[in-house]
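User: My collaborator sent over this chain with a note saying "see what the structure looks like." That's all I know about it. Can you take a look?
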Amino acid sequence: MSLHPHAGQLPTPDMLTDVPTLVSAYYTDFPSPAEASQRVSFGTSGHRGSSLDLSFNEEHIYAITQAVCDYRASHGIKGPLFLGGDSHALSLPAFRSALEVLVANDVHVFIAPDGEYTATPVISHAILSWNAGSAQADGIIITPSHNPPRDGGFKYNPPHGGPAETAVTRWIERRANEHLEASNRAVQITHYRAARHSSRVKVYDFTARYVDDLAEVLDMPAIAASGLTLGVDPLGGASLPLWEPIAQKYGLALKVVNKEVDPSFRFVPCDKDGKIRMDCSSPYAMSRLLSLRDSFDLAFACDPDADRHGIVTRDELMNPNHFLTAACWYLFRTRSQWSKGSGIGKTLVTSAMLDKVGEELQRSVVEVPVGFKWFVPYLQSGRCALGCEESAGASFLTRDGRPWSTDKDGPLLCLLAAEMMAREGKSPSAVYADLTQRHGAPCYQRLDAPADNRVRSLLKGLAAEQVDIRELAGEPVESVITRAPGNDAPIGGIKVMARSGWFAVRPSGTEPICKVYTESFGGEEHLRRLQKDAIEFLDRLLQRA
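Assistant: Without extra context I'll predict from the sequence alone. Here is the result:
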């Protein structure tokens, strides 16, 4: 893909989403369940869409929320539900619609004080904290994560606190579409004003609970004592309410460099394709924070629902794989109370550097399909003390080995970068550089290609024996997998490995694209040969279909 001329620059007025039209369409346009694109569809991170495409409208949220209530009733979940949302334009309307249905179904709902956005990890931590007393609380987060401003999203977290597993999302998806097909006649609704003032709705201080508990998972005194100057850009998202309370409680030299919140996200530079995308891993979306990196010892950012992290040292915006590798090495060396049997969780498209570091640390590596939901049972049981994925999402256990959040936690990883720098006396970039001296410096890249439903079905149904590739960039193929080694779950695609590199191909769970991941320990030219072999394999596969 060629670089858009506006990449890294602020959007022009004509590039901004027309928010009034977007919100109006949410309430006034009605989806047709006969159209596949207008049905409820849960990907790796919930249901996403746009009111302008008839894929995220009030009828969808009524149907999905009723389906969640049906699921709770059929599975005996009787505790409160924690409801939160981010700063996307469609999040507040969807939040209100969800509350109308929850209250009508006699669900006790905990919400943040009026006007306060709620980050995904804050909801996850609240669920786990509440359920430590054996209750059965769960949660809903209204967010499309880092997607463009025109999009909306809806995620359900069961009582384990993490993203709902596939069996749960399929149940909710099926029931929601049944409601849509029946014109939502079985959906119970209470008018918003009555719902908001219902005795079933309680205000919950998510920020205080999360901020107060941070000392259980991070060495906050070490960060404060270091005197490190920290800069943070919430990118107009739900981490904004957290940073100043964190700085005040723990005495950190932390400055929020951008406090703007606007549903058009006009203050976020355009991504490489010219779209506004609040992706804290993108050097283009992060160009404003990168321009300030000499003003701070360390800077960081989160996406709108704060489940992803972006780490900026004085040298660079760190590649997520690089930071997660450094974080893994640091954590397992400093968390002395963690069980010796606790391992490292990684998705199958996360860097093989984690395998090398795991071997150095003498820790097992559990490789699972893409999606943070796969880490939930491992974090709960302590089999994995850290779960991470290449798209800048991770969480880890408290210092005494308890689950902190079973969903991705952006602020946690940002503050871990500060702890690492405070205690190691060097930046996370330097820590990673040291690791490459011992294990090599891999080259990693993801390519995207359009993928229709035919392509997606083909990849999901692929068996290892159908793969005809014998060499990869001149080396013998050592293994081909279509199921994850850690839990034997289908990966929805294929991964091919040789001694010096690998590639993986899988359809996106949230976008109409096919993702091709490649990593080489043999340099840039070797990476290009890997990519060539991967694309040629994909072309042959599609020709046979």
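A starting point for your reply to your collaborator: The domain at 17-206 is CATH 3.40.120.10 (Alpha-D-Glucose-1,6-Bisphosphate; Chain A, domain 3).
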